[in-house]
Specification:
The structure holds two protein chains of two kinds. Chain A is mostly helical. Chain A has helices at 2-28, 36-54, 57-81, 86-105, 130-135, 139-157, 159-169, 171-176, 181-207, 219-229, 234-256, 263-286, and strands at 119-120, 136-137. Classes of the chains: A mainly alpha, B mainly alpha.
Chain lengths: 306, 357
């Protein structure tokens, strides 16, 4: 019973994990991206369509990354080069994603593919309790573990990561050190958006292998809130995403058991819980226990005197 | 010697320059959306002609456009009020649903006599919408919790709550198990005009625009809101209670959005049902952003987007386009508007760079 619940937790948490990781890469460079929800949908549809056309899941994931990378580049162009309002641009990206995927998704509604299958990791999958949940999963879930480590290593043990964090903290100082601020910011937004797209692809290639209009159902917004909970750290993002995976898994379990509580009320739980978590982590942030990038949300103009 | 492009700040453009930028953005967005339609197998020229013809080509079409313009004006005003203070209310959609729930509760269960029915529904909608938004207001004022995320997540909760009521306790007992509430009595309905679906809600929306204009431009509170919006630190030093103002402005914003829900159930649907709003509360964000500081601007932009929504509905019927396509178009308008802002605020100049001999 607990094993099944844990397994469902990991599977429900993975799309949110990818989305949160992508958002962290954005925000570390100092750019808020409220387009996560739209990017997930773009990733989900392009991944599904590419797999449907080619029969290859790998091509699907690559297509999801590239399509979201391209869509994220619009946000990057507006926020970085044109110094536009990041909140409006992000909302526009979400609207654009919802609309465009509804339009182009018409052709693939109702089609099915063979989604990602489980591959047990030898030895590890034999571990009691956690073995099945973490090491008898599909390749995308293993990719998410790898990404968590890679992003942690990148930000804390590589020169580029340090430079990117500097840009998020103080772009003027980074500029003075000769770091190409705009180039780094553009790449961070585009690559981060691509990672979000893989989260979308997880929905349409593994979680429920089909395309449903608006299938991300608010997960992108939960990810935006989780970035604050995770204090911009990829490792904490893992815990946050599984917390939400756990709530989703429990809620589905309750419904399956035929509880008398209305399904509509149960479906509210993840959103209510996100708000509670957001309040707690914001309060912690104010006590100085967190590491919000100093220049988050502000455009950088070399000629502005501060 | 080589030529370089330099980016320079320039003085704020004139109102004419800004209006031109808005119109250009919409036109460019239409052009790009045309390519999207082309890819989706729809002839964009035919589609655009159909939009104009359906929305403006007949008395019926025009009345339908005004019917759609009504909730857009009200929710647009709601978002723009908070906007004056640099507060983002992304939750007008949910507040609209809560307003509709409040009004429906009075209409179905209060048993009031006819003359008091509509005013009581109005008050219930205002309270429900206001309370819903006040949660975000309280969290933002007290602990600086990001109001964008809170108001947005509360949309999902509000829509689920409405669904719970429609599918559960408020379901019409004589409704053959359809997820609908019972129909409202005559006393709980707006009058309709010219034999069309145009209802009193439209005039209520115009009245709201006037009231907001007066509140913002002619009262001390409106002045404070604008002052806090343009420079919170200065406003605090001047002795203004910014926390209280944030709480009040978000509550007011939600209360206004609640009126839109009241207008939709009393004027159009005459019951509470699933899918009450096709995303008016999200479109409202664009309206507020496009109209910037003007209540009149909200009315004009709402009408333009109303045309688009009515036209979009007809495209849905004739070309099987999804309703959500309107969002793609709205997203594009915002992208181009943000890009045009750059050319309003900065100019590109070619400069000669001297090379040292």
């Amino acid at each position: 019973m607990l094993e099944i619940l844990l397994d469902a937790t990991v599977r429900a948490g993975t799309p949110i994990l990818f989305a949160t990781l992508g958002a962290i890469i954005n925000e570390r460079a100092g750019i808020i991206n409220l387009g996560i929800e739209g990017l997930m949908l773009i990733g989900a549809l392009s991944g599904f369509a590419a797999t449907l056309a080619s029969g290859s899941l790998l091509l699907g994931v690559i297509a999801a990354f590239c399509a979201s990378f391209a869509a994220g580049s619009i946000h990057a162009l507006i926020c970085v080069q044109l110094r536009g309002n990041q909140i409006v641009s992000g909302l526009a990206l979400t609207m654009f994603g919802v609309g465009v995927t509804a339009l182009f998704g018409r052709g693939v509604v109702g089609q099915t593919i063979d989604g990602f299958e489980r591959h047990a990791v030898p030895l590890f999958s034999q571990l009691p309790l956690v073995g099945k949940a973490f090491f008898n999963q599909d390749w995308l879930i293993y990719l998410s573990f790898f990404l968590v480590l890679l992003i942690w290593f990148f930000f804390y043990h590589s020169r580029w990561g340090l430079e990117l964090r500097t840009i998020g903290e103080n772009p003027a100082a980074a500029d003075a050190c000769g770091i190409p601020v705009n180039l780094y910011r553009f790449l961070a937004v585009a690559v981060g958006s691509g990672v979000v797209g893989i989260g979308g692809a997880y929905l349409s290639l593994a979680y429920t292998p089909m395309w449903i209009e608006n299938m991300s159902a608010g997960r992108g917004w939960i990810a935006v809130a989780l970035v604050i909970f995770a204090s911009w750290s990829s490792v904490r993002a893992l815990f946050g995403a599984y917390l939400f995976g756990g709530i989703t898994a429990m809620q589905l379990r309750f419904q399956a058991m035929g509880t008398t509580v209305s399904a509509h009320i149960l479906q509210m739980l993840p959103y209510v819980f996100t708000i509670v978590v957001l309040v707690i982590s914001t309060r912690r942030l104010q006590k100085g226990a967190s590491q919000q990038p100093g220049n988050l949300g502000l455009p950088y103009d070399r000629e502005d005197r501060k | 010697m080589s030529l370089h492009l330099r980016i320079e700040k320039r003085e704020q453009g004139t109102a004419l320059f800004r209006s031109m930028a808005i119109i250009t953005s919409i036109l460019v967005a239409l052009f790009v959306a045309g390519f999207l339609l082309l890819f989706a197998g729809v002839d964009p020229a035919a589609a655009y002609i159909e939009i104009l013809h359906e929305a403006l080509g007949s008395v019926y079409g025009l009345s339908e456009t005004l019917v759609k313009t009504t909730p857009l004006i009200i929710t647009g005003l709601a978002v723009s009020v908070a906007f004056r203070m640099q507060i983002w209310n992304i939750g007008a959609e949910g507040q609209l649903y809560m307003g509709a729930c409040g009004a429906t509760w009075v209409a179905l269960f209060s048993g009031l006599d006819s003359s008091w029915m509509l005013p009581a529904m109005f008050v219930a909608a205002v309270i429900a919408g206001g309370l819903w938004a006040s949660v975000a207001g309280l969290l933002r004022a007290r602990w600086q919790v990001n109001e964008v995320i809170v108001t947005l997540l509360m949309n999902y909760i509000a829509i689920l709550l409405a669904d719970y009521l429609i599918f559960g306790p408020w379901k019409n007992p004589d409704g053959f198990n359809f997820p609908l509430t019972a129909q409202f009595g005559e006393a709980a309905r707006f009058s309709e005009y010219f034999g069309t679906r145009l209802h009193s809600g439209f005039f209520l929306a115009l009245f709201c625009a006037l009231a907001i204009y007066l509140l913002m431009e002619r009262t001390i509170w409106g002045f404070q809101v604008k002052a806090i919006g343009s420079n919170p630190a200065a406003a605090r030093y001047a002795g203004m209670n910014t926390g209280l103002a944030i709480f009040l402005v978000l509550t007011l914003s939600g209360a206004i959005a609640g009126i839109a829900g009241f207008s939709e159930v009393a004027g159009l649907q005459h019951r509470l049902q699933h899918g009450l709003s096709p995303g008016y509360g999200y479109t409202a964000i664009i309206i507020a952003w496009l109209a910037r500081r003007s209540a009149l601007g909200v009315v004009i932009v709402s009408f333009l987007l109303g045309v688009l929504l009515v036209g979009g509905d007809s495209l849905q019927l004739s070309w099987q386009l999804p309703v959500a396509f309107a969002y793609a178009f709205q997203g594009l308008i915002l992208f181009f508007l943000l890009a045009s802002d750059f050319f309003i605020n900065f100019r590109l100049r070619r400069v000669k760079e001297e090379t040292h001999a």
